[in-house]
Structure formats: structure tokens, C-alpha cells
Design goal:
about 210 residues; alpha+beta; three-stranded antiparallel β-sheet; globular
């Protein structure tokens, strides 16, 4: 039951489907260069992301999504998922790329879970089942690229990475479950560039 609760909280961001059926613009996001330290009040932690990623409200994200020229059906499903995001907004932080808002990092705080390999395996299995049911039912092709459990700098990580494709457009989604210093939270990284920010997340400093 506890594992099911964890999955319900931390899969909302994964259930936001491919937001765009257009190619990414010619503007290039700066990745792994000019990292800017950002203090996250929700986690009381220092994070390191490219300088183009800015703190964004869920309402602003929804507005940009509604105004985009994305596939209507996929957009409507995504907006439905955003309503779920709003219901737990006090537990979340969203950063979007100022050059393309559909590149984003979504953080969700949950109840503390002392991660281990067994919990990681259970979480991965339940998450994959949820993803397969949701994405397949909406005609979205996907494949699992990476699934691992590791420890770094007194933090424990579960990393699950997917490639998502709709109308020949690919997007990459990486879900992290992270525990350390009595905190457990998820980080959802979503972009067109196959960048998962693993190195940057290993650098995060929990207080």
C-alpha cells in the first residue's frame, strides 16, 4: 500500500504525454554549460541546472500549453494531467527552459522512504506498468532506455529513462526517485535533447 501511494504521487509528471508534435525550434538550450546554482525552498536544497531553466508556475505552464500548436488530442490529455499537478502544487516545483517551455524539470516532494534495491525494483515495476497502460492507450510509442539504482554523496537514486515518440517526434523523459537526509522526492526531466541531468542531480546539496 505504501508503494502504491508513492507511485501515485510520483507518476503524475510521467503521465503528462508528449506535449508537442512539432520539431524543436532552431534555438539551442545550453546544456552542461554555465550551470547556475538554484536554491529550492521545497527541498531546502541547492540544485544545479543550466541558466536557461526558470522557475515556472503550473498556471503559466498550462497557459503556454493551451496556446501552443501541439496536437489537440495530446494537448487535451496533457491538460487533464496538469489538473492533477495543481492538486499537489504545494508539494511541487517546476522549472522550464526559457527557449522552449516543453523542456522542463518537475520536482515532487513525498513522504520519506529509505530506498534500497528491493524498493527500487518494486517502484520500477509499478511505474512501468502505469506508463505502459497510459501511453499505449493514447497511441504513443515508447521504449525503456535505462533503469537503475545507485548511491552517490549520501543520496540514493532510482533512475528510469524513456524515449517517447508520437508522429515521428521523439522526446526523452527521465524519472528519478531520490532519498537523502530524511527526504524523498522525485525529479522528472523532460526534453527533446536526450539530456537527463544525472551529473547535475548527483551534485545537489540537501540541507
Amino acid at each position: 500500500q505504501n508503494m502504491l501511494k508513492i507511485v501515485r504521487i510520483f507518476t503524475i509528471s510521467l503521465l503528462i504525454l508528449l506535449l508537442s508534435c512539432k520539431e524543436e525550434s532552431n534555438q539551442k538550450t545550453i546544456i552542461n554549460e554555465n550551470l547556475k546554482p538554484t536554491h529550492n525552498d521545497l527541498l531546502n536544497a541547492d540544485l544545479y541546472f543550466p541558466k536557461d531553466y526558470k522557475l515556472t508556475s503550473i498556471d503559466d505552464f498550462e497557459r503556454k500549453l493551451s496556446e501552443s500548436r501541439s496536437n489537440f488530442e495530446i494537448t487535451q490529455v496533457s491538460i487533464g494531467s496538469i489538473e492533477k499537478m495543481k492538486s499537489i502544487s504545494h508539494l511541487t516545483t517546476l522549472y522550464t527552459d526559457s527557449l522552449n517551455f516543453e523542456n522542463y524539470i518537475y520536482i515532487t516532494k513525498g513522504e520519506f522512504v529509505d530506498l534500497n534495491k528491493n524498493i527500487a525494483t518494486q517502484y520500477s515495476s509499478m511505474l512501468n506498468n502505469s506508463v505502459e497502460s497510459n501511453w499505449a492507450n493514447n497511441g504513443i510509442n515508447f521504449k525503456l532506455l535505462e533503469n537503475k539504482y545507485f548511491q552517490k554523496n549520501q543520496k540514493k537514486f532510482v533512475k528510469i529513462k524513456y524515449e517517447q515518440e508520437f508522429n515521428k517526434v521523439k522526446k526523452y523523459l527521465t524519472q528519478y526517485l531520490i532519498s537523502g537526509k530524511g527526504k524523498t522526492f522525485s525529479v522528472m526531466v523532460c526534453n527533446f535533447k536526450n539530456e537527463d541531468f544525472e551529473k547535475e542531480l548527483k551534485m545537489l546539496k540537501l540541507k
